[in-house]
Amino acid sequence: MRLQNIPQISHADSNNFFLLSGPCAIEGEDMAMRIAEVIVKVTDELKIPYVFKGSFKKANRSRADSFTGIGDEKALKILRKVSETFKVPTITDIHEVSDADMAAEYVDVLQIPAFLVRQTDLVVAAAETGKTVNLKKGQFMSPESMKHAVNKVKESDNENVWITDRGTMFGYQDMIVDFRGVPTMKQYAPVVLDVTHSLQQPNQASGVTGGRPELINTMARAGIAAGVDGIFMETHFDPANAKSDGANMLDLKMLPQLLKNLTALRQTINSLPSLVNN
């Protein structure tokens, strides 16, 4: 797995998992800087390659009056300031073809949301920027079908692509992660597990997505044990009052110990002999 091509990535050779983490949405400069400061400190201590995550806008909303952002350019400039201040790369999701070039001027990794990962024009536009592309596995897609999404990036002369599993729809209001998909998707690209969105409970009658944040620890440990290359985790210092996805985000104060535990687990997994099927 190549991380070295991402600008300002640290600890790329540590053999630890890499981390994509930050708030769901950029709500303002102070909150972004406050969250980044905590995560940068602990990831540096634990030698975890780290990419700051924040959506510059939210297009997939349950209700018309849901928070969508503070303004595209304003939010993207905050992402750039986080990168320049803390010397870390950044990632944001894009929703339209026109977003690709705009966001690529400010961030280092472009993310394709799960509901949009089959949109060929969008995936190709992201790939053609030359940035690393993070493909969220559609909640409606099999692990095997992600090969075609990966190929759209690679056939655009861009080998820098990841797959992030964020669960599969199980009924109307629940998500299930099938860990059998991890080794399958690792044949195509490095695999990340989204341990917060996979615990969402969407389609609530209230129009506000629910979640099971008490299971983030369990989901993250299972992902490391299953051999994922990276962990995606949204976090906030005040999840109850976050403007987007507060119901399934990790409270920031819990993050340092969780990352310490995951690093210890990763070290154990790395020390085990591999099994060869006979």
From TrEMBL:
<dbReference type="InterPro" id="IPR013785">
    <property type="entry name" value="Aldolase_TIM"/>
</dbReference>
<dbReference type="GO" id="GO:0005737">
    <property type="term" value="C:cytoplasm"/>
</dbReference>
<protein>
    <recommendedName>
        <fullName>3-deoxy-8-phosphooctulonate synthase</fullName>
        <ecNumber>2.5.1.55</ecNumber>
    </recommendedName>
</protein>
<comment type="pathway">
    <text>Carbohydrate biosynthesis; 3-deoxy-D-manno-octulosonate biosynthesis; 3-deoxy-D-manno-octulosonate from D-ribulose 5-phosphate: step 2/3.</text>
</comment>
<dbReference type="Pfam" id="PF00793">
    <property type="entry name" value="DAHP_synth_1"/>
</dbReference>
<dbReference type="InterPro" id="IPR006218">
    <property type="entry name" value="DAHP1/KDSA"/>
</dbReference>
<dbReference type="GO" id="GO:0009103">
    <property type="term" value="P:lipopolysaccharide biosynthetic process"/>
</dbReference>
<dbReference type="InterPro" id="IPR006269">
    <property type="entry name" value="KDO8P_synthase"/>
</dbReference>
<comment type="similarity">
    <text>Belongs to the KdsA family.</text>
</comment>
<feature type="domain" description="DAHP synthetase I/KDSA">
    <location>
        <begin position="8"/>
        <end position="267"/>
    </location>
</feature>
<dbReference type="GO" id="GO:0008676">
    <property type="term" value="F:3-deoxy-8-phosphooctulonate synthase activity"/>
</dbReference>
<keyword id="KW-0808">Transferase</keyword>
<keyword id="KW-0963">Cytoplasm</keyword>
<comment type="pathway">
    <text>Bacterial outer membrane biogenesis; lipopolysaccharide biosynthesis.</text>
</comment>
